[in-house]
Amino acid sequence: MDSLPAAHRTPPELIAGVIEQLRIDYKHNFPSLQSLRCCSLVCRYWAQLCRPIAFEDIYLRSEAHLARLLVLLSASPLVAASLADCIRGVSIADDGVS
């Protein structure tokens, strides 16, 4: 029996196919955010593949969302640079609540 974890034995093209399907589902507003989060917890490699999908378009619906984003970006320069490479758009909702 192989002692490597399953995530390390899985062919990269199979992993890429799973992540691509998550990207398609996520872009079509299916409830796949939870699936994306779960996949990002498998291992660092999967997290690296999921991160660009999760942070490609950021939706800020409240001051609390903005505060959480700023905390995340200020956690470390490495985290900020990694996420900055992923972000393609930011939307700010104006719900009239301050």
Characteristic key phrases:
98 residues; mainly alpha; two-stranded parallel sheet; 6 helices
Tell me the total number of β-strands: 2
N-to-C terminal Cα separation, in Å?
Answer: 58 Å
Class from secondary-structure proportions = mainly alpha
As residue ranges, the low-confidence spans are none
Main sheet properties: 2 strands, parallel
Q: Into which percentage range does the β-strand content fall?
A: 5-15%
Oligomer category: single chain
Structural account:
The chain has 98 residues and is mostly helical. Helix content is 63%, strand content 8%. The chain is built from 6 helices and 2 strands. It has a two-stranded parallel ribbon.
Q: Topology of this structure?
A:
Blueprint: H1 6-9, H2 12-27, H3 33-40, H4 44-55, E1 57-60, H5 63-74, H6 77-86, E2 89-92
Parallel strand pairs: 1-2
Concise summary:
The termini are far apart.
